């Protein structure tokens, strides 16, 4: 009897300790006067997100709407306090005015040894990020983009030829694959100086590896959850499990290209040349060891963000144009007008004159932002101005971009695709922080203008001679996956028909 009683007491104590561990932080926001949903042990407030039942963008939108009048909302990711910031002025403070206090992202546990390609500009600590960002920025100046423009145009011509063949064969177009091949070719030639030819080569190794990186899988999800929840276990397993094929491929390709350029004194004024300059000038960096892995990681980031984010945005734009024929007709008119004025040769300056195309592009990013939230972590204690809310050093802060850009008080009828939201009059009535697909401030997306041009050129080349329509295989509405990055869960099938100009 005594042994049974001791066992029961032991179990009860273990349960109490377990419960205490997972709930001991739950008074964190209440003690600071910050409202939020009630958490539950183990999961905190993100049970459905963790179990894959809810898209994180939809979850944050629900919380945003439930606490619409609250400038700050407190939730828990498991037992970790997370601050959701709704107030546009506070968002401006975090991203711009008080950037030095929120200069860290605090998203991933990264390891140079186990995750060589994640040690890139997106994830680096601020002290290492700042000098590296400064050195990489020149590749995205207007002058450099003008030099790259003929290369982008060449890839777009191949895209147009590919579309022509599909239309002649009366094939339906799977937009995500088509646009991903196009952006892969663009990034290959502009960043690596390599003619990948993914549009014409069905067995392109670059396309195969790019698809492997962004395609969700249970193994990748399990690997990610282990890294975030039990980094000690992840470190042990990483020493046993070999690098993925994609990691080896991109590391090898980047370094082989760098070495080949140096050996043969090849200069192309592209991204690889910038990396070579970094490698040859270690004196510019005091605290960073400019290893081959670090350089490869920057090339990897440029490739992945350049092809995946741009191809997804381009796919969404074509999808919305197919659903909204009047908008497409208006865009066709603008494209035809520019070609009539300037002839058959599309040039860099033509793109900037297409104001309606720019509205379509921005509205696509408004409705389908590439990421659903921006993350920051405080580097010191901080009190939000005009409040008594104080957060400690190391506090994680989430800015719910998807929720804000779906707010009917900011964007009436947010489910409606309406490019006129971005005419001059409407733009001036909104806070700048109500539109943040690429972030804002010093840590805004470094390649935003490059993405802008490759997407717009691709759309122009398709719409110049073809009309985009829905078909029997078009999924309406699009079913988005339960993931952080916003992308359609299934393929986007559309029908393209030749425009009769007779």
Could you describe the 3D structure shown?
By secondary structure, the protein is an alpha+beta fold. 51% of the residues lie in helices and 7% in strands. Strands 1-2-7-4 form a four-stranded mixed sheet. It has a three-stranded antiparallel sheet with strand order 3-9-8. Strand 5 (382-383) and strand 6 (390-391) form a beta hairpin. Helix 6 runs parallel beside helix 19.
Task: Please supply descriptive tags for the structure shown above.
single chain, 502 residues, alpha+beta, four-stranded mixed β-sheet, 9 strands, globular
Major sheet: arrangement of strands? 1-2-7-4
**Principal-axis shape:** globular
Distance between the termini: 97 Å
Oligomeric form: single chain
Give me the number of helical elements: 19
Q: Quick check: average pLDDT? A: 85
Q: SSE order in H/E notation?
A: HHHEEHHHEHHHHHHHHHHEEEEHHHEE
Gyration radius, rounded: 25 Å
- Helix content class: 40-55%
Portion of residues in beta strands equals: 5-15%
Number of strands: 9
Largest pleated sheet: 4 strands, mixed
Concise structural overview:
This protein has helices spanning 2-23, 47-50, 56-66, 88-97, 126-136, 142-168, 175-192, 205-214, 218-229, 231-238, 245-264, 271-280, 292-323, 325-342, 348-353, 355-367, 401-404, 424-428, 448-463; strands at 72-77, 80-85, 173-174, 374-377, 382-383, 390-391, 396-399, 466-469, 493-498.
Write the layout of secondary structure elements.
Blueprint: H1 2-23, H2 47-50, H3 56-66, E1 72-77, E2 80-85, H4 88-97, H5 126-136, H6 142-168, E3 173-174, H7 175-192, H8 205-214, H9 218-229, H10 231-238, H11 245-264, H12 271-280, H13 292-323, H14 325-342, H15 348-353, H16 355-367, E4 374-377, E5 382-383, E6 390-391, E7 396-399, H17 401-404, H18 424-428, H19 448-463, E8 466-469, E9 493-498
Helix pairs in contact: 6-7, 6-19, 7-13, 8-11, 9-10, 11-12, 11-13, 12-13, 13-16, 13-19, 14-16
């Amino acid at each position: 009897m005594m042994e049974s009683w001791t066992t029961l007491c032991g179990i009860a104590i273990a349960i109490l300790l377990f419960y205490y561990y997972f709930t001991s932080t739950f008074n964190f926001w209440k003690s600071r006067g910050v409202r939020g949903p009630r958490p539950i042990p183990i999961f905190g407030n993100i049970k459905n997100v963790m179990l894959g039942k809810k898209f994180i963008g939809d979850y944050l939108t629900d919380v945003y709407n439930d606490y619409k009048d609250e400038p700050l909302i407190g939730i828990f990711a498991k037992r970790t306090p997370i601050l959701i910031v709704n107030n546009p002025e506070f968002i401006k403070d975090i991203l711009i005015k008080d950037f030095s206090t929120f200069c860290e992202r605090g998203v991933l546990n990264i390891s140079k040894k186990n995750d060589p390609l994640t040690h890139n500009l997106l994830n680096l600590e601020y002290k290492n990020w700042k000098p590296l960002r400064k050195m990489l920025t020149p590749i995205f100046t207007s002058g450099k983009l003008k030099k790259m423009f003929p290369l982008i145009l060449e890839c777009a011509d191949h895209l147009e030829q590919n579309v022509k063949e599909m239309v002649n064969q009366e094939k339906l177009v799977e937009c995500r694959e088509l646009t991903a091949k196009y952006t892969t070719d663009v990034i290959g030639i502009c960043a690596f100086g390599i003619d990948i030819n993914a549009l014409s080569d069905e067995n392109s190794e670059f396309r195969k590896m790019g698809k492997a990186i962004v395609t969700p899988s249970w193994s990748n999800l399990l690997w990610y959850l282990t890294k975030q929840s039990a980094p000690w276990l992840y470190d042990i397993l990483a020493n046993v499990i070999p690098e993925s094929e994609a990691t080896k491929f991109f590391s090898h390709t980047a370094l082989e290209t760098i070495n080949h350029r140096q050996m043969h004194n090849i200069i192309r004024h592209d991204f690889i040349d910038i990396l070579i300059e970094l490698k040859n000038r270690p004196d510019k960096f005091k605290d960073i060891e400019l290893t081959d892995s670090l350089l490869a990681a920057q090339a990897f980031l440029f490739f992945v963000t350049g092809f995946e984010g741009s191809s997804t945005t381009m796919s969404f734009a074509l999808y919305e144009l197919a659903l909204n024929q009047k908008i497409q007709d208006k865009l066709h008119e603008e494209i035809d007008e520019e070609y009539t004025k300037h002839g058959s040769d599309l040039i860099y300056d033509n793109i900037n004159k297409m104001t309606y195309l720019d509205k379509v592009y921005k509205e696509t990013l408004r409705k389908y932002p590439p990421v659903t939230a921006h993350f920051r972590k405080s580097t010191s204690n901080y009190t939000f101005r005009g409040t008594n809310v104080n957060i400690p050093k190391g506090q994680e802060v989430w800015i719910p971009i998807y929720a804000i850009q779906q707010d009917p008080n900011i964007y009436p009828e947010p489910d409606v695709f309406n490019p006129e939201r971005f005419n001059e009059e409407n733009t001036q009535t909104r806070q700048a922080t109500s539109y943040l697909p690429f972030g804002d401030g010093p840590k805004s997306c470094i390649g935003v203008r490059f993405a802008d041009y490759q997407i717009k050129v691709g759309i122009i080349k398709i719409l110049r001679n073809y009309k985009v329509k829905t078909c029997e295989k078009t999924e309406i509405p699009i079913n988005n996956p339960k993931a952080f990055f916003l992308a359609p869960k299934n393929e986007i099938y559309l029908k393209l028909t030749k425009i009769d100009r007779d």
